[in-house]
Amino acid sequence: MSQPLPDDYLDYPLRRHGMDHDRYDWSMLPKRPPVRWPGRARIALWVVPALEWFPLDMKGQPFKPPGAMQTAYPDLRHYTLRDYGNRVGIHRVMRALERHGVPATVAVNAAVAVRYPTLLEACVQRGWEVIGHGLDMDHLHHGGLDPERERGWIAQSLEILTRATGARPRGWLSPAKSESFATPDLLAGAGIEYVCDWVNDDMPYPMRTTHGPLVAMPHPIDIDDATILVANHHTEDDFRDALIDQFDLLYREASEDDGRVMAVSLHPWVIGQPYRIGALEQALDHIVRHRGVWAATGGAILDAWRACQAQA
Amino acid sequence: MARDPGFYDYLPYDRRPVIRWPGGARVAFWVAPNIEFYELNPPRNPARAPWPRPAPDVQNYSYRDYGNRVGFWRMLETMRRCHMRGSVSLNVAVCEHHPEVIAACAENGWEFYSHGTYNTRYLMGMTEAQERAVIQDSIDTIRRHTGQKLDGWLAPALTYTERTLDLVAEMGLTYVCDLFHDDQPGPVKVSRGRLVSLPYSLEMNDTIVYNVNLVSPRRYADILKRQFDRLYAEGEASGTVMCIPLHPYLIGQPYRLAAFEEALAYITGHDRVWLATGREIAAWFAEHHFDAFAAASIPVGEAP
């Protein structure tokens, strides 16, 4: 038999109206003031490829992020397959997005910017927005991380991206969406305006930090090539259908006076395979032939959303 | 520890009394949305970690939170369009955290039953007094916030002690959703009280379907229709039960809703289906069939 539980296991000090923390307020999507996108678009289409580097000697602490090395060292098969995304796959993604007039917001491990500066140049040339994505996939932000160390990782990541692109990143996606309790505070303190780790909404919403406001952007784990194609083992057609069904419902729910965000999370090592890229292209064909689709970067969506909040 | 939970005798599907549902329905159909609250940083139960990642597990916490902020409201509209009431499997602390969600359910005539206090507070390791306190909290909180008498129970996060079902029966609840041994209701052998086991189904549960079996939304719709078709056919001879347990954070994702609505409309569009709540099915069974089922049950032999 296990030890009996202490009686304070039945204490609920945070049982109250709203959330069990102060990071953000309880808010119901259908009860909010409407958000009007530029051109009265119904859908802000936000495509977010991640450029990742998984070190060959990764420790995977405190957990293995999705995409981590799997075999005994040296795991050449997983190392090189992830790197395929940065060499080949991303170029198929670039062509697919360009053909549909869709800009990307690319989340970049700082290691990628240092290792492959020409890749960052190619992103910047296309007018893509570059957002922070930590140092690499083996530097996970988590509750056991010393805050000063975490602050240093964030500062270093942002400095590297600023140097590589000539612009200070406005957004941040933590590697594996993993945060410490302090991450949003540290991000806001480093000048970050929006964070992409939280998956509790389909729209931007305000967060509270020790360094002023931060906006949570609705970056998904469901509408994600690695989730659907790798983790769930679905087919390329299933992925296309998921994107189309996601879009169709959001499009119906939205109006010219109250738009929605449709966010798509991509990993070039997944979607950039020759047999898969067509699924993304077919879904984009479907999406961009609708009236009222505004393909935008995260920063542009943030600005439009903020303008509506100021009016409301 | 026991080798057999001891909650039911053997009653084979081909040798049991006939169930007749009201209005000559073949299937008693119910939908059980799990309205839940998962805490960001709950106290530790040594038997189970609340989250797969170290605290704060931002990804998994916020995924669940999506259900209350966003998914619930879409699921509600989908069910309204199909004229389907929910029987809410409720972490009762949602009454305090999100009374707006509770009010929306109540306005639509939904039933509330208990799924514990939080989905991050587990029953394993509780003393009898602690477990009684949890059940009493559910009875009192549901009564206070909804005016309903608590009738049903699904243990929080499917966690138990050996006495859980005895205690809920003794404290006046009438049905449990924790046993998955049948497609028809049946008597539960408890020390005091009269307790019905109501088929709930993990096979149809969107958590199992999406998070464990990793199926696609269109495939889930196909699964639901196949399940219904067979239970509808078999229900001509003796009434069956079909439950769809839902979680708004899963079914309320935009890309999953249209396929689900198609399946729900298909099921509710049949003539001989009783669109019921858990309490209604359990009460009908208790009144009309419980004693016959108990009498027909065959005690199980002692395993070597």
The CATH superfamily of chain A is identified as Glycoside hydrolase/deacetylase
Largest sheet of chain A: 5 strands, parallel
What would you call the shape of chain B?
A: globular
Give the helix level of chain B as a range of percent. Answer: 40-55%
Radius of gyration of chain B: 19 Å
Amino-to-carboxy terminus distance of chain A: 57 Å
The unreliable regions of chain A are none
What CATH first level of chain A would be assigned?
Alpha Beta
Stated plainly, the CATH topology of chain B is called TIM Barrel
- Which structural class is indicated by helix and strand composition of chain B? alpha/beta
Summarize the SSE layout with pairings.
The complex is a heterodimer of chains A (312) and B (304).
Chain A: E1 43-51, H1 76-99, E2 105-108, H2 110-115, H3 117-125, E3 129-132, H4 147-165, E4 171-172, H5 183-189, E5 194-195, E6 205-207, E7 214-216, H6 225-231, H7 236-253, E8 260-266, H8 268-271, H9 274-288, E9 293-295, H10 298-311
Parallel strand pairs in A: 1-2, 1-8, 1-9, 2-3, 4-5, 5-7
Antiparallel strand pairs in A: 6-7
Helix pairs in contact in A: 1-9, 7-9
Chain B: E1 27-35, H1 58-81, E2 87-90, H2 94-97, H3 99-107, E3 111-114, H4 128-146, E4 152-153, H5 164-170, E5 175-176, E6 186-188, E7 195-197, H6 206-212, H7 217-234, E8 240-246, H8 248-251, H9 254-268, E9 273-275, H10 278-288, H11 290-296
Parallel strand pairs in B: 1-2, 1-8, 1-9, 2-3, 4-5, 5-7
Antiparallel strand pairs in B: 6-7
Helix pairs in contact in B: 1-9, 7-9
